[in-house]
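A protein record pairs a chain with a discrete description of its three-dimensional fold. The following entry can be read in just this way:
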Amino acid sequence: MKAGNLRQRANGKWQYRKPYGSYPDGRRRERSAVFTAKNQTEASRIATQLAARWDREHEAQADYRDTMNELVDTWLANVEHSPTTAYRNRAVIAAIRAEFGTTKLVNITPLAINQWKLKLAKPYRKEGDKRDSQRLITRGPSTIRQYLAWLHTILEEGYRWEMIPTNPADKVKPPKVRQVDQAVHMPTVQALAVILSYCTNPNLVLAAQIAASTGCRAGEIAALRWADVRDGVLYVSESSYKVPGEALGRKGTKANKKKRLLLTDDLLAALEAHRAWQVEQCANAGETAVQGPILANLRDDLTASRGYPPGWMGQEWSRLCKSLGTPPYKFHGLRHLHGSIMLAKGISPTDAADRQGQDVNTLLAFYAHAFSDAAQKAANVIGAEMSPLFALPQGEPQ
């Protein structure tokens, strides 16, 4: 470190300046302070203390500058995430910091990222797990892909800000994920009718009817208020969310896509009946029902002004299916059912995607589970033509 410069100014004021090289653009990097001292000896002592503190801070900054920690901090300060996204990805950010936090960005190579990928696949013990301190947790391929995707996103911002010349994550292959047929989690309309016939919770019945008839997500259903139903149209503009330790909140829908959904006569009738039931329940308790959430938690508030968190639907649905011994249907599977029926019955992908509130390609990739009439017709034609093959006399097995 170069020595600083101490000089006396008027009225017992002293100034101490110390250089610290140059900035990347060529400007001088220095620290400066003006202070009061009685004489040269006291001024020198203060200057020495300043120099020692500045040197420590400069070394710390040098260790921090151009590292993954600096990039992550800068990225977090410039990105807007929903509360639920920020909460879910805390573990991902923590893992990235733990592996690369103090590493200079120029030293983060594709090989280093690939080694991290292999490390993520190894079983580990969750710190602070009170249930079972010896329980091993394994991250699956889809989880590891998520970790790599976030690392790639952060490094891509570093490349855009010219902190690194290239994105090293571009050259790392994510693990392959076996595609799971979501149809196993999607009941048929007939199966759904049977399940709901055994359900004794009016809120859960209506939630399932809304999900299957509109394709709304659980968060969107939880956020619905009676004011959102007008002239036979359901207006979906918000989604409810719950972060552990915080109050129930509301945010925009996914991708901020607002929807106007024409309701079927049956669903309108079900909504009217549910509202009447809601008012009656509040009246029986000596309260007046307000125009609050459609799915009101009457256990907590008999004025019908408080709703359920979106996770409540999935939990109650899972309990219901388990009690009935059904296949592992998911509440989100009702959204799949809605999209699949539209495609199977000839609704154009564009119109179906608009009603679902999502991208056309996503709709086709994840929600077209049911076979179309054309597919069934093709199978019937092939079956008729190939029937002679199965009518041949069968010989003895060789």
Confidence is low (pLDDT under 50) at residues 394-398. The first helix runs from residue 40 to 64. Strands lie at 5-8, 13-22, 28-36, 124-125, 136-137, 229-230, 233-236, 238-241, 249-252, 259-262.
